[in-house]
Amino acid sequence: MISSGASTSILTIALLIALNLLLFSLLIGLFRAWLGPSVEDRFSAILLIGTGGVAMLLILAKLLQITALYDVALVLALLAVVGTVALTQSESNHD
Amino acid sequence: MIDTLAILAIFSGLFFFLSGSIGLLRLPDLFTRLHALAKADNVGLALVALGVIILEPAVINDIKIVIIWLLVMAASAISSHLVARHALRENRNDD
User: Which among B93, B89, B95, B83 is positioned nearest to B30, based on CA atoms?
Assistant: First the structure.
């Protein structure tokens, strides 16, 4: 499914390298989420991980030829902002 | 030719993702970290989505990717605003 021919192999290798670089970028963001001194730093790391997950799902949907992954990316883009809004509003309700 | 354009767009987006992650890890303040995060969210995901749109032949999937990109841009703006306002409110309560 991945290696469908000799003409698309360069594209496949480039997309796999792009996926690995995105995963490395998400690892750096996860390090900030572990290190972050305040809650807002961890929020911003969660936002970066959500956006990077959407980009990874877009590339994976093209790489594996599974079009349902576009819908998964849509749901992930929706859930990132819903989680951040819920956390922020519940923190500010205490005062 | 089409594949070269798509790979160029995706790797330009990956440059913005990696610089946004390094900025999220290295910058000293929460607000400067949000500034670096906005670059990764808007320009990085826009270029990755542009590359996947170039590679994707079906028009309905292209429309879906554009919807995902617009949704992530709105989500990034709203989330950054909420996190920054929450941080400002917490600092005001501490004083």
Answer: B83
* Per-residue pLDDT at B10: 92
Picking from B44, B58, B82, the nearest residue to A88 by CB comes out as B82
Q: What local confidence, expressed as pLDDT, does residue B93 receive?
A: 57
- Domain ranges in chain B are 2-94
Q: Which of B6, B41, B52 sits opposite A51 (nearest CB)?
A: B41
CA distance A23 to A49: 10
> Do residue A58 and residue B24 have CB atoms under 8 angstroms apart?
no
- Summarised one tens digit per residue, pLDDT across range A42-83 is 888 888 888 999 999 999 998 898 889 999 999 988 888 888
Query: How high is the ipTM of this complex?
Result: 0.87
Tokens of A87: 């956390």
* Residue B17, φ and ψ in degrees, nearest 5: -65, -45
Taking contacts as CB-CB distances below 8 angstroms, the residues of chain B near A8 are 3
CB < 8 Å to A73, chain B: 68
Distance of CA B34 to the CA centre of its chain: 11
Does this model's pTM top 0.80? yes
